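Quick note —
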Amino acid sequence: MDPGKAAVLSALIAGLVGVVGAVAAFAAGKASAKGVIEGVKLQLSDQRDFALWTDKRNAYASFLAAAEEVRIALGPPIRLVGAYLEEGVGSGQAATEARNELHQCYKEFVYRQSALRLSVDDPEVERAWALVSLVGTVLDRFDTWSNTLHDHRDSDDAWGQFNDSRGRFEADLAAWATAARAQLSEHHSS
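Predicted structure written out below.
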């Protein structure tokens, strides 16, 4: 073959190889970019899921803390009201203040249940509302017991009803916490 034709043919082959190489590099770059984009999307999705899970965990923790505050706040009014009205020990003012603190804790509990609605599903909100309602019953029965003591009437039945509702609240609260923990574990592991 003529050296000029060979040079042209060689240049054409080199150019064709260059074009094929460029097309291959473009395809590889496009596939790599797609992989990077998919990886970023997956990472953002995981971060979003984790943020939602964290929000749910915080809402559960806040509600549970408010429930525990109510449970703990029940102690002083029981002791103070009982001591003051049954035994004449202490002051009515201290008993009233403890009762008011208990009712303030209940208000906070209601607010936390309302905030819980923003982060959890309806069945979980309904279980939380059942606890709030039960605490309302506990407080009503506490007031009934206090009033029977104040009026110097037989308070045994009122005390029994109050104590039963308080025990039910503590049991239901433990069950609610177990269910919340299960929900968090289920969502976090998926």
